[in-house]
Design goal:
alpha/beta; two-stranded antiparallel ribbon; about 40% helix; disordered N terminus
């Protein structure tokens, strides 16, 4: 019995090593060969937003250690900063080469060139210039390009008669409308596809009046997508994702499976997944946060082309630095990703 127990214990002890080794081998192969047109499914998504700057050595090393120790190979959304002034609008892609390349050796990279909160800061021409800069400069290290983030949000232009709270830019805000938002989305898509790259679009879901929202029915993701996205994008997008922050809608439980079924009808060829998940009203206590993480990463609707994703928005603050202690947020996410 003792020998059998020791053997069993030895096998149990070796199992995490084998899984971790497979993940590391996959990362090493991916770092050498990025020729595959798609990321293996399910996609294990996390987000490193721009609350902190991956261009600083200390934080970059912390991010690399955190994502590099995950049991599965993650896909990391990188949010690139809004900075600059005058004619120099937005952080230049060249400043992100070293960080993006380093992270690409540990994970697949999902590039968010312009966050939805920054979209209104760019004219159509400035938006196109930033996209050309990023795709041409970072193309070797990015696997998926997010050509529109929460693209149907009513805060992406400044034509709303009621100004969106907190809207500000490092430069004079240009006059933009929903038509400009659509034009910018189309331009980004064509830049990505012309370069032979993979394009994703993220829609935003905040059902009115069930949630604390200022959005009208015309901003519903299905209605907006059907009306404003051209047919070549409906047929050609590689991924269509959904951003949903349920802490704005605690007394409302939407039928997300039915919603994704509707989205699939609009984008029949696209792979579908959750594109943002997290908290927006305020950070919940740890038990509630763990519940939120478990709910998001276990979600799997019965729809074609489902790839998972989730891309927990606060990973870069809540799971960095690396903390493998049992019960840590990093450990919870690591377990959730492994079960996707």
């Amino acid at each position: 019995m003792k020998k059998q127990c020791l053997l069993i214990l030895s096998l149990i002890a070796l199992t995490p090593f084998v899984v971790r080794s497979d993940a590391q081998n996959s990362r090493a192969k991916h770092a050498q060969d990025r020729s595959s047109p798609s990321i293996p499914t399910p996609i294990h998504g996390v987000t490193v937003a721009d609350d902190k700057d991956i261009r600083t050595e200390k934080y970059l090393n912390e991010v690399i250690e955190s994502v590099g120790n995950l049991t599965v190979v993650p896909t990391v959304r990188l949010t690139y900063k809004l900075e600059g002034a005058g004619t120099d609008k937005g952080a230049k892609a060249a400043t992100y080469v070293a960080a993006t390349k380093a992270i690409s050796k540990k994970a697949y990279v999902f590039a968010e060139v312009i966050d939805s909160a920054y979209e209104f800061c760019f004219s159509v021409a400035d938006h196109q210039a930033r996209w050309n800069d990023y795709v041409s400069t970072l193309g070797d290290y990015v696997d998926i390009w997010e050509v529109g983030n929460e693209i149907n949000g009513n805060w992406l232009d400044n034509s709303d008669p009621v100004p969106i709270k907190g809207q500000k830019c490092p430069w004079k805000i240009p006059n933009t409308t929903n038509k400009d938002v659509i034009a910018k989305m189309i331009n980004a898509y064509h830049i990505v596809k012309k370069a032979g790259k993979t394009a994703a679009l993220t829609l935003y879901y905040e059902p009115n009046p069930a949630c604390t929202t200022s959005m009208g029915q015309e901003y519903d993701p299905v209605a907006w997508g059907a009306q404003n996205i051209p047919s070549d994008m409906k047929d050609g997008l590689d991924y269509v994702l959904l951003s949903y922050y349920r802490d704005k809608c605690l007394n409302f439980k939407p039928d997300l499976s039915a919603l994704f079924t509707q989205i699939h009808k609009i984008f029949p060829n696209a792979k579908l997944g959750m594109g943002e998940w997290g908290y927006s009203v305020g950070k919940p206590d740890k038990p509630k946060l763990i519940e939120l993480l478990n709910e998001g990463y276990s979600f799997h609707p019965d729809v074609p082309n489902w790839i998972g994703g989730v891309f927990f928005w606060e990973f870069g603050t809540d799971a960095v630095p690396y903390d493998p202690k049992p019960g840590s947020i990093w450990s919870v996410i690591d377990t959730d990703l492994s079960k996707q």
